[in-house]
């Protein structure tokens, strides 16, 4: 995806405990490894009790603010269906809405890897090399989780490919 402006704006939304912050950390690091200036912010709400969580990641040649302005998200990635309509106003008219519908329900070996599978789907619409994604994932996840998350990431990449 090439943004219509010099900054790419991504919003990741879901509920506390779904790995929203981890996913945004991985995305931010992958973009940084790809040579972009990166800014990130997050809103936790009642995140430890399953409340709404959003994280904004902005990257480009030069990024001044970490917050994605309303109506300017290039991609809205949502891990919890109840959060789609709540966050839809953040998405620009031509933006991409990525929901968990792209991942077959029984395809994940570990349901806790849904956030990483969704990053795999996201990787298909961003111009960041796969190596940067994998290196960022490995930097943020315990070594014992690398294999299962590598598989989840690849599943997301495959599932999000257009037929």
TrEMBL record:
This is Indolepyruvate oxidoreductase subunit beta. Pfam families: POR. Keywords: Oxidoreductase. Coiled coil: none annotated. Residues 16-112 form the Pyruvate/ketoisovalerate oxidoreductase catalytic domain.
